[in-house]
Amino acid sequence: MRVLLFSGSHSRHLFVLAKLLKLDASFRVVVMERESVMPSPPANIAKHDLKNFSRHFEKRFEIESGAFGELNHQAVYSGIETHVCQPQDLNSRGTVDFVNKEPADVCIVFGCDLINGELLKSLPPLSLNFHLGLSPWYRGSATLFWPFVFMEPQCAGITIHKIVSAADAGEVLHQSVPTLEKGMGIHDVGLATVLKGSGELALTLSNLINGIELKFTAQRSMGRLFLTRDFEPHHLRTNYDLFNDQMVDDYLAGNLGSKKPKLITSL
């Protein structure tokens, strides 16, 4: 099977997609260089929000580095034909030409910006996105973060869905959430989400290689779409000021209601 991967450059993206490389398939890769994993705070940020901002991103780096290591795409995709681009060039003629150079049977995307235009038309009919978020409730950007703003830590999860022109709106193959345990902070939940989902993505490709039919379910609403520009440092106050990064404990104690997401599970 010929597999086309679209990969972000962060360690979480490389860790997940590296699992697919162990399967019996032929791979080509488009790598989109991502922003720094340690972003600079916005100008004129309030002193209190700066403290939360530093705490949030430093803890994310600590937890993810400990789990995934500090990976780079040159090493992970060594020996595999690779096209590297910047975000503004993702949908460029250069990327389209790379994709069209050799037809693929399936495409799997994790960690790239929205694919559109001629590039979208160039993808194989079966093209899947590994989305860190439960669609349609949490579509778009930072969708493992926003559940903690809405005090729904139980709604942090993954969605494997078909790629369409709208962000994270395609037919759903599978969704999952991690098991929440006492003492988990926001980044512990994020890590557990990625680890569980990575195995499910590998199983998806393995099923395809073995000729197992995949069953998809249409999304029935547009849900909520979050853009990168929606995030403001003061949004961190919910998780850190109100809960001191112990929101999961409050949820497990029954203090945040009993709502549970209705998942599509087909693996």
Describe this structure in words.
With 267 residues, the protein is an alpha/beta fold. The protein has a single domain (2-35, 55-252), classed as Rossmann fold. It contains nine helices and nine strands. Helix 1 packs parallel to helix 7 (186-209). The protein is globular, with a radius of gyration of 18 Å. The relative contact order is 0.17. The model has no long low-confidence stretch (mean pLDDT 97).
Summarize the SSE layout with pairings:
Blueprint: E1 2-8, H1 11-20, E2 26-32, H2 47-68, H3 73-76, E3 82-85, H4 93-101, E4 106-110, H5 117-122, E5 127-131, E6 139-140, H6 146-149, E7 158-162, E8 172-176, H7 186-209, E9 225-226, H8 237-242, H9 247-252
Parallel strand pairs: 1-2, 1-4, 2-3, 4-5, 6-9
Antiparallel strand pairs: 5-7, 7-8
Helix pairs in contact: 1-7
Low-confidence stretches: none
Instruction: Give the CATH class.
Output: Alpha Beta
Radius of gyration (CA) equals 18 Å
Structural class: alpha/beta
Shape assignment: globular
Number of helices: 9
Strand tally is 9
CATH topology: Rossmann fold
CATH architecture: 3-Layer(aba) Sandwich
